Amino acid sequence: MNDRYDVVIAGAGPAGAQCARDLAARGYDVVVLETEAEAEFPRQSNKSTAGTFHSMMASFGIPDDVVMQYTDSVVLESPREHYVREQTGAVLEFADFKRFLVNDSHEKGAEYRFDARVTAPIMEGGEIVGVTYNGDEEVYGDIVIDATGPAAPLAKKLGVVDLERENHAIGIEYEFEGIDIDRPGFADLHDAMMLRLDHEIAPGGYSWIFHTGEDTAKVGLCYIQNDSHERYSRSGFTIDDYLDHWLETDPRFRDATRLEGKQHRGSAHIQAPGTMHTDRFMAIGDTVPSLDPLWGEGINKCMQSGRAAAATADSCLKHDGVEPTAENLEVYDTLWHRDVAPNANKRLLMTQLLYLASNERYDQLMRDLQRLDNDTLAKANNGDLRSIVRLFDTDDVPLLARFAKQQLNLDLGSLL
Question: FAD-binding domain: which residues (predicted)?
Fold first, then answer.
């Protein structure tokens, strides 16, 4: 096997495979090192809910045959209210989607090595020049990219990312059949992706039902084990206990059964990224992390970060004599903040504030959303402060005060 490439990528998830796809299409020699065995790829660990939107499908040329169900609306639920917004999307079969990206990038010329667990960077003169994998195997590249997600074996050792434990989100999901998709008293979930804010079910997080056709759906929940979770959680409850509780108490699941082999678990970090690159190195996808903090959308963000890294690598490699120094790779940070996650810090603050609210305030939020126009909602979702302010009233003063105190404590903690 070759041991020198233009680009070495660790991780064959959506970010890594898309980055390889773009680089191979430009004619670069690229190798992807993937921990999982080829025959088992992808296993069901660290699974995405795979809800996305047509903009991602069109931007990245994703075929229809990886789609389980096209959707027409997004539904937000609270314990007693709900809000429906017309917005087309797609629920993907995540395994098929990942295999498509790998196969397509391989056809374009990318090399894949499975059963290849990356362990450490190879350093020369203070710069990364390659990676070791499977103990003593080595491969070298002009640029190295970490797309391994929260494991981040390269980014952590290079001091590029600092994934904080208190920002670690965990999730669980099952696929079911026999769900009452249009239950009286609830929103009609036919061709819909539903997100529910309810601390009884997901303290410090949210749960979901994504329709996948007829009476089937993906059902799951996630939360961050932070102050909000501690405030609303039940003593001794695990994430499995919360999901079981929802299944036992929600009448939509009364006749539902779990599909064999369709249990998925995942994790990510909900925090603002710091440094994302250094000399000859970039971190992409959930390694950064790139997950949208507000609604948890990760596929498009990961794909966009992979594309931004590929464009950045191209800007150096296509010019003789241009070294991929930290200064020359700075364009990656610019593209990330412009295209991948604009207003990332504002959206993170909105997320932290959202999870502090009580169930009663979630009910009020649904009523507020029903009275506001779509333009205001779109602007608020994009971090526009005036539009965000319209979502609050005088009764929210205690909530805002608690939020301000939490932020002050976080700021002080970072200084100590």
Answer: 5-306
In the chain the domains, ranked by start, together with CATH numbers, are 4-50+93-163+271-340 (3.50.50.60), 166-269 (3.30.9.10), 344-415 (no CATH)
Pairing of strands 127-133, 82-92: unpaired
d(CA 327, CA 73): 43
Residue bearing tokens 């809000």: 83
Owner of token pair 């939107």: 53
What pTM does this model have?
0.89
How far apart are the C-alpha atoms of 369 and 381, rounded to whole Å? Answer: 12
DSSP 182: T
Q: Which two structure tokens, joined as six digits, stand for 75?
A: 């539904």
CA distance 48 to 298: 8
CA distance 330 to 310: 13
Contacts within 8 Å (CB) and 24+ apart, 404-412: 406/227, 406/352, 406/356, 407/349, 407/352
Give the integer Cα–Cα distance in Å for 253 and 178.
Answer: 8
| Crossing angle (nearest 10°) for helices 299-317 and 14-25 | 40
> Around Cβ 297, how many Cβ atoms within 10 Å?
19
- Give the whole-angstrom CA distance, residue 51 versus residue 62: 13
Rounded distance between C-alpha atoms, residue 361 and residue 154, angstroms: 42
Q: Which residues contact 38 (CB under 8 A, 6 or more apart)?
A: 112, 114, 115
> Encoding tokens for residue 62?
């994703």
Residues near 124 by Cβ (< 8 Å), separated by ≥ 6?
none
The structure tokens listed for 146 are 């970490």
Q: What is the pLDDT of residues 21-73, one digit of tens each?
A: 999 999 999 999 999 999 989 876 556 788 898 889 999 999 999 999 999 99
Alpha carbon distance, N-terminus to C-terminus of the chain? 49
pLDDT 10s digits, 158-206: 999 887 777 778 899 999 999 999 999 999 999 999 999 999 999 989 9
Note the Cα 413 to chain centre separation in Å.
26
User: Which secondary structure element, helix H or strand E, spans residue 8, and what is its range?
Assistant: strand 4-10
Q: How many CB atoms lie within 10 A of CB 124?
A: 10
Alpha helix positions (H), 214-343: 227-232, 239-249, 299-317, 330-335
